[in-house]
Amino acid sequence: MRYIYTNHKLMHHLKFLVFTLLISSSINLNAQYTDIINSNRPGTSQGAFAVGKNVTHIETGVSIGWEEHSLLRTKTDAFYIDYAIRHGLVWDRLEINLTGSFVAEQVVDNRSAVPFEYNRSNFRANTLGAKYLIYDPYKERDQRAPNLYSWRANNKFQWEELIPAISFYAGVNFDTEENPFLPPEDPRFSPKFVLMTQNNFEGGFVFVTNFIVDRVTTDFPTYSYILTLTHAFNPRFSMFVENQGIKSDFYADQLLRFGAAYLFGPDFQLDILSMVNFKDTPSRFFVGIGGSYRIDNHPEKAPRRN
Hints:
The chain has 306 residues and is mostly beta strands. It is built from three helices and twelve strands. The chain has helices spanning 7-12, 138-142, 151-155; strands spanning 55-69, 74-88, 94-109, 116-135, 165-174, 189-201, 205-214, 222-232, 237-247, 253-265, 268-277, 283-296. A twelve-stranded antiparallel β-barrel has the order 1-2-3-4-5-6-7-8-9-10-11-12.
């Protein structure tokens, strides 16, 4: 998950050390490289901050789900594998990543007198792209000296906290042929664009927005948003709630996700999550677990004590 780390408050207000979720971003003077892993899991949104130069993240999870379609009269048991490989390239502001999802389903069709059962599996998504941090409002703020005479001055709400970090993502979808989870005759390659914002608030709260334009060169373009609010209760444990809205002639939905993550060390976290939607064409519910691991070769990495 996303954890925030504010250096000057550590020196003067250690009890207010804040770790907060967002692309699991800990924020130091560079507002990029952090002392702990900053995974995007278990939510599906992308935070505005990259992983840092020469840093690699491996983020994956498995889940099981159940769907029931009231019109098609089908019931489905599903198994999902989600993955992301993220790498900081050239600058701390730039990240390249490969993300995807594999689905295997067992479907029971009840439209006839004798139910018909069949299996299907394929990749629901495979996307290679790059993210770049356009605007970072926290770099200047974190370099300011704290007020040594006023706790209130250091901790009261500041209107400038409403100004978010902003990033832009561009990617290419790589789709397989005869994919049962995608519209027929769609081109195998299509673009994806995401505008991301991230607010790191006092008290361990992070708010992320993603505005997504996907598959715009196909017959069924998709427009969606993701709103993710995360909160760190202590340096290791955090929870999130997330709303995603999807609009397309092929598939439209409103999804609610929630879950938690636990940091076992600076480079490893585990998470759990659940998802539910609000319609019956189909109704959907799933639960899952996942993990994230960081390979840290950042040039500014501090040596660790044995």
